[in-house]
Write a structure and sequence with these properties.
The protein is an alpha+beta fold. Helices cover 17% and strands 33% of the residues.
């Protein structure tokens, strides 16, 4: 998913901009009841299913006497300063918090007494302290203990809206919801058929969870890759542009442009460095796990929390996740097939994975259901939609080493197959494996076993499809298989350029269900 980078005025941080805006707004809401009324009205509208006032949408709306909200703010600052804030904070939002979940009589948009000029404006800083502004003056809380329960506004970025990518050259900035669940215009209208649904302050909100900012591209920064597999960086740099070369020639045989003969280093092995599950495959993996968050074929994901049959407050995001993710771990079996003609060998590894390591939930819908003849206590219904399940890279702590490459009259490719295991009952069946191997490859090796020349000479490589006997667990979900070749690169490209790289794009493989990357590893002697 593409995100347009935010424009920031040089030397002027977003933190500076938020505090400058908070200072301006604190003076405005102190002096103007019209502005307080305007913000209260907009917060109650809950355009994004939260009490957010999205500045880009409301800045040109009328506050009073033909004066727009932006024009009203210009009574407390100048146009250059306000324009700089607007440029630095394209998602600028004034949040009017609903704090009744903490105390029944706490501040909320509906209960805001706009006749009182006492309103504080808050900014949560990166160090978790809070800057508080009242009529232009500031104070700072020593630590983040939450927003005060009195009349307060919070300056923040909107986490439910993003800028659209401008593909038509329009100067005007356009926005869209990150997910349709945030668009209040899609909310269902309550009818008499649902008259037991509670319609008070908690009736229909969204718990903000993770943001859709996981780096699920194939990129990795140079510092991280340098710590994990510096050999891959050197191999890319040394052999980039060399015809027929493989980056494994450097890692396994020490070959360089000036040294095209090398002895196999038996202390190098490839390993699966990271993996992720395609979004459309998540239900398939979880449908056989009793108690998992996927509960029926209609993609309904819901948890009914009765609060231990008491009038208790709702659970927070992390507690709800613990309920949604109940059901244990996924058992993923990884099989490696390799070898020469008629001599396909197998190695298997099993990986126990917590679902939370494979994907996150971006937001959770929370509804409150109130008392009726049967249920006198308060219950909470939490629901997750498909669009809000976000896959992410998983970095296994289990070392997923691949079989050693045996090029001389051996395998030049390895087929990797993934399955998700659902039972302990085993069965034997035939599995068709595509693989490549060398014939007469001793012509490419010295008597002492040194490899001569880059890559794999096609004259000595054969491809074949063979059936092999496989023992596997019944009812396992097939996650696909793919052939990995010796000549495949670890690194595809560098960015922004190969001469001064800041990071690299790794070569990734996809089975249709699993995407994974491979890197070399130097074993301990």
């Amino acid at each position: 998913m593409l995100f347009e980078p935010e424009f920031v005025v040089t030397g002027y941080s977003q933190q500076n901009a938020k505090e400058d805006f908070a200072r301006i707004l604190s003076k405005a809401v102190y002096e103007s009841e019209d502005i307080r009324c305007f913000l209260k009205k907009k917060a109650i509208e809950r355009f994004d299913n939260d009490s957010d006032v999205f500045y880009p949408y409301v800045k040109n709306e009328q506050v009073s006497n033909g004066l727009s909200f932006r024009d009203a703010l210009l009574s407390y600052t100048d146009d250059i300063s306000l324009s700089r804030i607007e440029s630095t904070l394209p998602l600028l939002t004034i949040y009017v918090p609903d704090l009744r979940w903490i105390e029944e009589d706490a501040f909320c948009p509906e209960a805001w007494d706009v006749s009182s000029e006492y309103v504080i404006v808050c900014v949560v800083r990166e160090d978790k302290t809070i800057s508080i502004f009242f009529n232009g003056d500031s104070d700072k809380m020593s630590k983040y203990d939450g927003i005060p329960l009195s009349s307060s506004l919070v300056i923040k970025d909107n986490e439910r809206v993003r800028k659209k990518i401008n593909t038509k050259g329009n100067e005007e900035t356009a926005y869209e919801f990150i997910s349709t669940v945030f668009d209040a215009s899609n909310n269902a209208i309550e009818t008499k058929s649902s008259n037991y649904r509670y319609t008070g302050p908690y009736s229909y909100v969204y718990l903000p969870g993770c943001q859709d900012t996981f780096n699920i591209t194939d990129n990795i920064d140079i510092t991280t890759l340098g710590q994990i597999a510096p050999e891959a960086i050197t191999a890319y740099s040394e052999l980039r542009g060399i015809p027929n070369s493989s980056q494994r020639d450097y890692c396994y045989y020490g070959m360089t442009p000036t040294n095209t003969v090398g002895q196999l280093n038996n202390y190098v092995r490839d390993r699966i460095f990271r993996m992720r599950i395609e979004r459309d495959s998540i239900k398939k993996l979880c449908d056989s796990h009793t108690g998992s968050f996927i509960k029926d074929p209609y993609l309904s994901r819901d948890i009914d929390d009765d609060g231990n049959k008491s009038y208790s407050p709702p659970s927070d995001y992390n507690n709800v996740l613990n309920l949604l993710y109940a059901g244990g771990k996924l058992e993923i079996e990884i099989a490696f097939y390799f070898g020469g003609k008629g001599d396909v060998q197998q190695e298997r590894l099993v990986l126990d994975v917590n679902p939370r390591d494979l994907f996150e939930i971006r937001t959770i819908k929370r509804e409150q259901w109130g008392s009726n003849i049967i249920k006198w206590y308060r219950t909470w219904l939490y629901t997750v939609s498909d669009d809000d399940i976000i896959p992410k890279w998983y970095y296994p702590t289990t070392n997923l080493r691949m079989p050693a490459w045996q090029l001389c009259n051996g395998a030049t490719s390895v087929t990797i197959e993934f399955k998700e295991v659902d039972s302990d009952i085993t069965t034997t069946k035939k599995n068709t494996i595509n693989h490549k191997y060398t014939v007469g490859a001793e012509l490419k090796y010295t008597p002492s076993g040194e490899k001569i020349g880059f890559g794999i000479d096609p004259k000595y490589e054969k491809g074949i499809s063979e059936e092999v006997s496989v023992t596997e667990k019944t009812g396992s979900d097939d996650m696909g298989k793919i052939e990995v070749s010796y000549i495949d690169p670890y690194i595809k490209t560098a960015y922004p350029n190969a001469e001064s790289p800041e990071g690299f794009t790794l070569h990734s493989y996809s089975t249709g269900t699993v995407v994974f990357s491979i890197l070399p590893e130097i074993l301990s002697y």
